[in-house]
Amino acid sequence: MVLAKLFFAFLKVGLFAIGGAYSFLPLIEKEVVEKYHWLSKEEFLDVLGMVQIFPGAISIKYATYTGYKIAGIMGAVAANIGNLLAPVLLILFGSFLYARYKNTASIKSAFSIVQLAVFAMIIALAFQTVNMNQLSNFKNILIVVLSFTIFIYTKIHPALIIICAGILGAFLK
């Protein structure tokens, strides 16, 4: 029964994870923290920090972590199959439709509005993942501003920015 719950919880995440990356973290949180209580809010945020270190899709890493924690290897497999099934089927269908209708005004408008909604959720999540007390420290504000500026105005790979921030954080304490 727990394997089915893992499968369907992450199927829901995969089905409604529009926008990718951070936009669907609220969906994952709703399933694994609020609905099933597989992770506490604190553990969810700790795992967010951990999954940002490793390469790959965040939803896959959450499915793997949560599935493994709840039901071992089979739990990780069930959660990941659920997570991947809907996007694979939808992108196949969407590719067919997009090839036919990509130049229509309503499709262009729909994509534009979805981008704005995803942008809003990413901003909201950014505020949820940071302890606001951290932003009362000048050093931390400087790290945020420098990381943002480097990301926006240079071609430095985001992974390098994250690794450098981690190394800097280890020495600044």
Main sheet, how many strands, which sense, barrel?
Answer: none
Rg from Cα? 18 Å
SS field, number of helical segments:
7
The portion of residues forming beta strands comes to under 5%
Q: How far apart are the termini? A: 45 Å
Q: Tell me roughly what share of residues is in helical segments.
A: over 70%
Average pLDDT for all residues: 89
Shape: globular
**Alpha-beta classification:** mainly alpha
The count of DSSP E runs of length 2 or more, i.e. the number of strands, is 0
Order of helices and strands: HHHHHHH
Are there runs of 5+ residues with pLDDT below 50, and where?
A: none
List the helices and strands and how they pair.
Layout: H1 2-16, H2 25-35, H3 41-51, H4 58-101, H5 105-129, H6 138-153, H7 158-172
Report on the structure:
The model has no long low-confidence stretch (mean pLDDT 89). 79% of the residues lie in helices and 0% in strands. The protein has a domain of 106 residues. With 173 residues, the chain is mostly helical. Helix 1 packs antiparallel against helix 2 and helix 1 crosses helix 4. The chain contains seven helices and no strands.
